[in-house]
Amino acid sequence: MTDAMSHVNPRMSQEPVPDTAEERVSYLAEGHSLRSWLLTTDHKRIAILFLLSITFFFFCGGIAAALIRLDLLTPAPDLLSNDGYNRAFSLHGIIMVWFFLIPSIPTTFGNFLIPMMIGARDLAFPRLNLASWYIFVLGGLATLATVVLGGVDTGWTFYTPFSSTYSNGAVFMAVTAVFISGFSSILTGINFIVTVHKLRCPGMTWGRLPLFVWAHYATAVIFVLATPVLTIALVLVALERIAGIGIFDPRLGGDPLLFQHLFWFYSHPAVYIMVLPAMGVVSELITNAAHKQIFGYWFVAGSAIAIAVIGFMVWGHHMFVSGQSPYASAIFSFLSIVVAVPSAIKVYNWTATLHKGDIVIDGPLLYALGFIGLFTIGGLTGLMLAMLAIDVHVTDTYFVVAHFHFIMVGGSVSAFFGALHFWWPKITGRLYNDLWARLAALLIFAGFVMTFAPQFLLGYEGMPRRYHVYPAVFQPLNVMSSVGASILAFGYLLPFTYLLWSLRHGKPAGPNPWGATGLEWTTPSPPPKHNFETVPVVDKQAYCYPVGGRSEDSKPATQKAEPGDG
Amino acid sequence: MAEVSRPQPQFPTLARQREADHLGMLIFLTTEVLIFGGLFAALFVLRAEHSAEYVKSSKGMHLWLGGINTAVLLTSSAMVALMVEAVRAGRARLAKWLLMGAIALGLAFLAIKFTEYALEYRDGVVPRLSPGNLQGGPDALFMDLYFAATGLHALHVAAGLVLLGSLIWPFGAARSDSSAAFAGNAALYWHLVDVIWLFLYPTLYLAR
Amino acid sequence: MKAVRTILFAWAALLALLGLTIAASFAPLGHALPFVSYGVAFAKTGIVAWIFMELRVRDGLQRIALGAGFVWLAILFTLLFADNLTRGWPA
């Protein structure tokens, strides 16, 4: 096993190829009709339904991004009209935020893995889970309707009074689409919280939960507490649009800033919805790559909760130049600096976990490392933005655009791909070619940095966001960014090829190709419909890797209580 | 609906499934609190920024009709609470009558509410719809928010009535719903609808 | 039954509080009125939650689940009004 062939992951244990009897009971084999998929209540199948849906929207949002970066190759408004450009970045934001990033990890890997990681047969409310997918699809259809109707030009942030009074775009349809998708989030959140409280198998105490589960629990709390406020904010915009009630119109006694308060009360915690699951993934990937116990389990778990709670108290940092009171701005600035602390704690803990670990470098690890590096840069620039004196200069410039793309794309999307690779054998029962995985990870990292690092410079030099006309002096950096975007796009497309190829031609995977410790790795790959033949009993911590790392004769240890355990 | 004797496969015991159902409903109710909270935020902001007009508009509200409605909802809630006790005690017929009483009171609430809307239309204070008196401005905004808030609340009252109504039919068969699981969850929803009104009333009607 | 008596007492208390809040709105309380009105509203909510919604017999998790909405609204209102009420203050 230590003798690695370069194109095969050297960590993959030489497990016997599973026989067809096992394949016959896999959740994928339980019914092949469309009906068995569209009326499923199996959390694993629903996860696949979500995976297909969000991938579709990732492409849609990517097309919008391509239009943006193509237009920005030149300082002149030559590809899109001004109005067209507004619609392009608005759709890019709406689709990427609500129809890709927010559902991405929770509804795919969260749905698939949470019951398995806690030793449960399904989520607490399987039918609500399916309803959540249908509601998501309905919201997605409304988004497509928005595109057909010509799109919106308000930005994904729908600021009033432009969105409520003046815009000529399909604002009503757009806010309806997001309104609908909010209910999908809320149902998922309720499901996850109740599942983690009520369905843990015997021995699975809170202190033994994988950090992936902690991260998703914190995310679910945000889903449940933040989304309803967005719901009502959008309802009010819709009411103002169709009935002209004036709630956000200062001429009629309204307060446009009220919208921003309600919107950002949701949307700031929403960015933690987008990053916490990714952090949960990274915890799993790092511990497995180092084959070592996480450093500071309770610090990592507690920081997830801290981020979720404090994240609700910082929203005003999006409003520093909006006319918000400077006293409130000062409070929000202070709290925004505080919220960086738990994130930093996680980064320190992952680094310490890697230290003196028995590290093997493979695709999932590269994605996790990409997350850590890019998230750190994004997070540090976030601290810069939290400071009023800096923010008043760089707000609404490309500095902010770069900051959030470093976190959401460099961070969350990298983690998403890491998760996709790490759990691919479990979900599909197939192994993929790791050389391609490492190549894709490096291309994504390089393409990403080339795309977004120049944007920090552009923003600092003063290029405003949401403009496609810019001074010619900014062109070189814009060209570099656009070229980087094409490399990034290629990097994202690459996994589609070798992963899909592996479905047909990949080597069948055993239960635990990575020698990982979670309960999900004690089942066949792919798992049977109800995950576990008998409910597992847990007697070990998470990440109970054998001390001393990998060796020829160390049997992979999982959390499950085995007969003959000491 | 009817009591089931076996838990769903993911639950180890029926008791655990019921706990999960209750917890799920309570979390859902928290989301409802937050939705209405946004409306209250709008009302409080209006009050903070235009307090004179706000108070004047509030004084024009039908305080007594609102007060009667509050009493109606409180009584309906009490009846629903008694209903749950009756179900637990196995007294299905008493439960049915209490339920029908609660639903009747809920319908009365809606009837009084729509009467108020009609009166407001006649008084000319419905922005844009009733002829003449109200131009745009904070007083119109108050009325708009009043209609938005009470309208959304009325929708929830209607939903609650449907939920309560769904308990009536199976009751003849569900004499053994001894844990009052589903009835308990429906009751929780109804009580929350009541709580929301308990805050709407002083906010809209009693600002002096 | 004891439970029935508790519910009926709660109902009577709720109606009494309703009378109180209506009466208070006619009294010359000035700026204190909102405190009385919302104080009563919270008291009524407390009774409905504790007795009708049976929080008094539920476990801590369920109490937190319902209470979280109110706590989070407090966060929203506190910071929202930290802005609204201080906008006119001198720099």
How would you characterize the overall build of this protein?
The complex is a heterotrimer of chains A (566), B (208) and C (91). Chain A has 566 residues and is an all-alpha fold. Chain A has 16 helices and no strands. Chain A has a single domain, classed as Up-down Bundle (Cytochrome C Oxidase, Chain A), CATH 1.20.210. Chain A starts with 19 loop residues before the first helix and ends in a 61-residue tail after the last helix. Chain B contains six helices and no strands. The longest helix of chain B is centred in the N-terminal third of the chain and has 36 residues. Chain B is elongated, with a radius of gyration of 20 Å. The model of chain B has no long low-confidence stretch (mean pLDDT 89). The termini of chain C are far apart. Chains in contact: A-B, A-C, B-C. At the A-B interface, α7, α8 and α9 of A face α1 and α5 of B.
**Share of residues in strands of chain B:** under 5%
Helix fraction bin of chain C: over 70%
Question: Greatest chain-chain interface?
Answer: B-C, 44 and 45 residues
The total strand number of chain B stands at 0
First-last Cα distance of chain B: 46 Å
Distance between the termini of chain C: 63 Å
- What is the CA-based Rg of chain C, rounded? 17 Å
Question: Could you estimate the helical fraction of the residues of chain B in percent?
Answer: over 70%
Mean pLDDT of chain B: 89
Number of domains of chain C: 2
Give the class-level CATH name of chain B: Mainly Alpha
Element-level helix/strand string of chain C: HHH
- Briefly note the structural class of the backbone of chain B: mainly alpha
Task: List strands and helices in order, with pairings.
The complex is a heterotrimer of chains A (566), B (208) and C (91).
Chain A: H1 20-24, H2 34-38, H3 43-71, H4 82-117, H5 126-148, H6 162-166, H7 171-198, H8 211-243, H9 256-290, H10 297-310, H11 326-354, H12 363-386, H13 388-394, H14 398-428, H15 434-461, H16 475-505
Helix pairs in contact in A: 3-4, 3-5, 3-16, 4-5, 4-7, 4-8, 4-9, 4-14, 5-7, 7-8, 8-9, 8-10, 9-11, 9-12, 9-14, 10-11, 11-12, 12-14, 12-15, 14-15, 15-16
Chain B: H1 14-49, H2 51-59, H3 63-88, H4 92-123, H5 138-171, H6 181-205
Helix pairs in contact in B: 1-2, 1-5, 1-6, 2-5, 3-4, 3-6, 4-5, 5-6
Chain C: H1 2-26, H2 33-52, H3 60-84
Helix pairs in contact in C: 1-2
